[in-house]
Automatic annotation (TrEMBL):
Pfam families per the UniProt record, alphabetical: GGDEF, Response_reg
Catalytic reaction(s) noted: 2 GTP = 3',3'-c-di-GMP + 2 diphosphate
Enzyme Commission identifier(s): 2.7.7.65
Sorted UniProt keywords: Nucleotidyltransferase, Phosphoprotein, Transferase
Listed name of the protein: diguanylate cyclase
Native source organism of the sequence: Ideonella margarita
Length: 345
């Protein structure tokens, strides 16, 4: 980026007259700038793309395509950048000046070119180009900051997992993909067993640490690119497994349950004799036009409460009518709305 008026400029000098180019090139060299020369509009466009000059000095009247055409093509070839274009012309009518600006030019120098005026124009364009580069840098920084903020808005601050908003977005994407590809989509809704007792005994700070540990474990189980672990709310979590069948979901849940056991996180309400466990509900479907995010989550939620009614520390799946502990469904017809709260909590 140019930051000083004394910076060396790379200048593309375009003029069909070799004598005019020689005079201007000598003046630019005396000012300490580097010059690339072209003798026609087509060559100017080619050299602009190849050399990426800091400034273009362009004759207007040339055989074939004129300078206005070349300026227009330069702007089309590089729409996000701004390189100053100064036209060189003996035409001083208002219409000629307006046509040059409309074509993409930024200023005019009238022939014969005064070295003093040329140097002043270059300094002015150099300052403008430096400001343009600074603006582009700030725009890039702002874009990156917005991307970071967007990422943060989809993250749960406690566990670092995707939050409920991010989960809803991904669920919608994966539901559409599964419906389009006619592939199964599995949702696991799980929570930490007896977590209220954990908080009441150890306090909320240690409870937060427990949730962080569980969140890290769940994130580690999502090894495929599209698998997702998210915090649903409180001590509830969701794992999204695109392209996973009923049997695959049950195998995943069994492995997850073993992993939680291996974590061996003591549950303070049981004097360290028992460790933290999780219960979960599994919902798997090949979505059709009637499938919704709400229906998937509702079925997983009902399966979660069934798992709790069967004794916790297990996953239950309505589709297979089995749980991950016994392999059978002692309470397959469990009704969450009619179930006893004493049985659940």
């Amino acid at each position: 980026m140019l930051t000083s008026e004394s910076s060396v400029l790379k200048i593309l000098l375009v003029d069909d007259s070799a004598s005019h180019r020689m005079v201007l090139a000598a003046e630019l060299d005396a000012m300490g700038h580097d010059t690339v020369e072209a003798d026609c509009a087509e060559d100017a466009l080619r050299l602009y793309k190849l050399e990426r000059p800091d400034i273009v000095l362009m004759d207007v009247e040339m055989p074939g395509h004129n300078g206005h055409w070349a300026a227009h093509q330069i702007r089309l070839s590089d729409p996000e950048a701004w390189t100053p274009i100064i036209f060189l012309s003996g035409l001083a009518r208002d219409d000629d000046l307006a046509a040059g600006i409309d074509a993409g030019g930024d200023d005019y120098l009238f022939k014969p070119v005064s070295p003093v005026v040329l140097q002043a124009k270059l300094r002015a364009m150099q300052r403008l180009r430096a400001l343009s580069q600074q603006l582009l840098t700030l725009t890039d920084q702002l874009r990156a900051s917005n991307a970071d903020l967007q990422e943060l808005s989809l993250r749960d601050p406690l566990t670092g997992l995707t939050n409920r908003r991010g989960l809803d977005i991904r669920l919608d994407e994966e539901l559409r993909a599964a419906r389009r590809e006619k592939l199964p989509l599995t949702v696991l809704l799980l929570d930490v067993d007896n977590f209220k007792l954990y908080n009441d005994t150890a306090g909320h700070l240690q409870g937060d640490d427990c949730l962080r540990r569980i969140g890290q474990l769940l994130a580690g189980t999502c090894r495929r690119p599209r698998d997702l672990a998210a915090r649903f709310g409180g001590e509830e979590f969701v794992i999204l497994l695109p392209g996973t069948s009923h049997s695959g979901a049950m195998l995943f849940a069994k492995a997850l349950r073993r992993t939680v056991h291996q974590l061996a996180l003591p549950h303070p309400a049981h004097g360290g004799e028992r460790c933290v466990t999780i219960s979960g509900g599994i919902s798997t479907a090949v979505p059709d036009g009637n499938s919704t995010i709400e229906s998937l989550l509702s079925r997983a939620d009902a399966a979660l409460y069934t798992a709790k009614s069967l004794g916790r520390d297990r996953f239950f799946c309505f589709e297979t009518q089995t749980d991950t502990t016994t392999g059978v469904a002692e309470a397959a017809n469990y009704d969450r709305d009619k179930g006893s709260s004493a049985d659940l909590f």
